[in-house]
Write a structure and sequence with these properties.
By secondary structure, the protein is an alpha/beta fold. The two termini are about 20 Å apart. It has two domains: about 120 residues, Rossmann fold (3-Layer(aba) Sandwich), CATH 3.40.50; about 55 residues, no CATH class. The chain is about 45% helix and about 15% strand. It has a five-stranded parallel β-sheet.
Length: about 190
């Protein structure tokens, strides 16, 4: 069956619980947490620094052992298991992609550990592409990589900032708050 729909999923805050914002909020006031998240994760998401460099820098500035940061990070990495059958079902009638802002190697590792790669026709990680959401070019790269014209294209993300540019490039934004509202926005309910 020819699939004329493309559904693109964000990773953290949709398929997995958020990690970086929670980590920083656990250690700092909200304003400082937001500043530090941007300071470290914008360059890591764009591939300007490696995952190792990211955690080395965080360790130095935060005064925490790198191993302690990695341990807490691991504890915060929680799959939302209810998303797996939802994505499987959507994949029956649509092409499915993942588009995540993340440091190199992280998404790939947790997807392998949780047997999630099989759910996606294509996986795009910002650091490998040297571009990140919310820049329009990363969404267009994702869509164009499929090499076909879709009747409908959706991007599901929990961050409103990542959705704002989408209507002007022909992608329907879906703000993820819960599965039922997501499915309704996709016309599945």
């Amino acid at each position: 069956m020819d699939k004329n729909r493309l559904i693109i999923f964000d990773c953290f805050g949709v398929i997995f619980e958020e990690i970086a914002p929670v980590f920083f909020r656990n250690h700092f006031e909200e304003e400082t947490a937001a500043r530090l998240k941007d300071k470290y994760f914008v360059p890591a998401d764009r591939g300007d620094i490696t995952r190792e460099e990211l955690f080395d820098l965080m360790s130095a500035e935060l005064g925490m052992e790198k191993e302690d940061i990695l341990s807490e990070w691991g504890e915060l990495t929680r799959l939302r298991p209810y998303m797996v059958p939802v994505i499987e079902k959507l994949g029956e009638t649509a092409d499915i992609a993942l588009l995540s802002n993340a440091p190199t190697g992280f998404v790939e590792k947790i997807f392998e550990e949780n047997n999630l790669t099989r759910l996606f026709d294509k996986i795009f990680v910002s650091s490998a592409l040297k571009m990140a959401k919310p820049d329009a070019e990363i969404y267009l790269h994702c869509v164009n990589s499929f090499g076909k014209k879709y009747d409908e294209i959706f991007m599901i993300d929990d961050n409103l900032k990542n959705l704002e540019v989408l209507p002007e490039i022909g992608i329907t934004p879906v703000l993820f708050t819960d599965v039922d509202s997501m499915l309704a926005a996709l016309g599945e309910k």
